[in-house]
């Protein structure tokens, strides 16, 4: 009889420890996700009005509000807006849909721009480098346009 009571208490204790562990793990994941969302966008502030990145910053904020998007990089010239997004692992099966939906969403808000959105990692890295150059004021408007054209060509060349 004593062994049966002890076994019941033991099982209840193990169950409660399991539930507590799962609950704490989920809370930490939520906190980490919120911190990651804040670091997922780099707003590029350029004093030179010719290389103004306000449009790209607004577009990045808009894309980051999408549930499946984890990080965004992008830049704009006077007529081009090029963005790259990273998505949650599970959403990698829907990359084409995410690109298409994102592009359609941005076309409504930025009608005067030629908009390109990519989920390709290489494009993401290229735009990340470009953002850093813009932030450090190491790129002119002419070079910015040239670089965006090169990135758009890379986006078209991908299989």
For the largest sheet, list the strands in their spatial order: 1-2-3
The fraction of residues in strands falls at 5-15%
Fourth CATH level, the homologous superfamily of the largest domain: Cation efflux protein, cytoplasmic domain
User: What's the story with the biggest beta sheet?
Assistant: 3 strands, mixed
Percent range of helical residues: 55-70%
Radius of gyration: 23 Å
Coarse morphology: elongated
Number of domains: 2
CATH topology of the largest domain: Alpha-Beta Plaits
Mean pLDDT: 83
Low-confidence stretches: none
Helix segment tally: 5
CATH architecture designation of the largest domain? 2-Layer Sandwich
Instruction: Give the helices and strands as they follow along the chain.
Output: HHEEHEHH
User: Which structural class best describes the helix and strand composition?
Assistant: alpha+beta
* N- and C-termini, Cα separation: 70 Å
* CATH class placement of the largest domain: Alpha Beta
What features would you describe in this structure?
- Strands 1-2-3 form a 3-stranded mixed beta sheet, with helices on both faces.
- The protein is built from 5 helices and 3 strands; from the N terminus they run ααββαβαα.
- The protein has 2 domains: 1-39; 49-157, Cation efflux protein, cytoplasmic domain (Alpha-Beta Plaits).
- Helix 4 runs antiparallel to helix 5 (141-157).
- The protein is 60% helix and 13% strand.
- The mean pLDDT is 83.
- The relative contact order is 0.13.
- The protein is an alpha+beta fold and 159 residues long.
Comma- or semicolon-separated keywords:
alpha+beta, Alpha-Beta Plaits, 2 domains, 5 helices, 3 strands
